[in-house]
């Protein structure tokens, strides 16, 4: 379907960018939490130090994505929140839980093992909840008029659980490749051993979700396989295959930065695939971005704010990552 570059479309791209930024930035520190039980005590300290300067700022993008959805597409926000209330609340509580554990493990050393368990639990629950939320959205939401018309447990299905598990593998991969890039010694060696298996698990999860999605709805099937769109959509799995080869070759050659960058590329391709499936719907097969959009005057007013704030956030984020660009050890960055 042709893309019309009007205000609702611009805001859809802004929100999609914010969600992607959140996924790739908060994804690796959630991934470190997922991998935490596999790390030794000194390795845990190094892993924590690698994300300590940036993990709070990473969640800025979640606020921008959620706030942007509420402001730019208020009807969709109401429907989606009503349908996916349980996994979204679980995600927010888990993020709070892991944030508390992150700080307390340093100060309350007598109970550190419990805070480490809390950090892992919060990371796993937040990741699963995000994947289940995405799966629940993709499989469709029952809409009656302008509000949610389904049941309390509609979000829970084999497909949404599959997406949750796939995202769990993907975040763990981001965490492992981040630590390959940011650590040295035994921690880096450990993550190099984990990365190939996590890469296989992530690609298997992507393949399973991609294979199942077109059969959720005939509209998805037509998006991917109808002629001549297939000439365009076929490039996505082709690029995934190429990125996969590059990923495993980079691991074999003991590259430091490339595995992480390729892992980010895989997530970017996943977002492109998601866009192909969904556009122009913000609630699949029920509400388009134009149906849900706020009044034009509101979109224009907010766009001015976004044009100012998004570059500031990008500049601050880039500066923070530049300042803390080195390797990390038990005593911090060096």
Brief characterization of the structure:
The chain is mostly helical.
What does this structure look like?
This protein has about 325 residues and is mainly α. The chain contains 15 helices and 6 strands. It has one domain. The strands form 3 sheets. Strands 1-2 form a two-stranded antiparallel ribbon. It has a two-stranded antiparallel sheet with strand order 3-4. It has a two-stranded antiparallel sheet with strand order 5-6. Helix 1 runs antiparallel to helix 4 and helix 6 packs antiparallel against helix 7. The model has no long low-confidence stretch (mean pLDDT about 85).
The total strand number stands at 6
Order of helices and strands: HHHHHHHEEHHHHHHEEHHEE
Tell me which oligomeric state these chains represent.
Answer: single chain
Global geometry:
globular
Alpha carbon gap, first and last residue:
50 Å
> Which strand-content bin applies to the residues?
under 5%
User: What is the spatial order of strands in the main beta sheet?
Assistant: 1-2
Biggest sheet features: 2 strands, antiparallel
Count of domain modules = 1
Number of helical elements: 15
Q: In which range does the helix fraction lie?
A: over 70%
Give average pLDDT, whole number: 86
**What structural class do helix, strand and pairing data support?**
mainly alpha
Rg, please?
20 Å
Instruction: Give the low-pLDDT segments.
Output: none
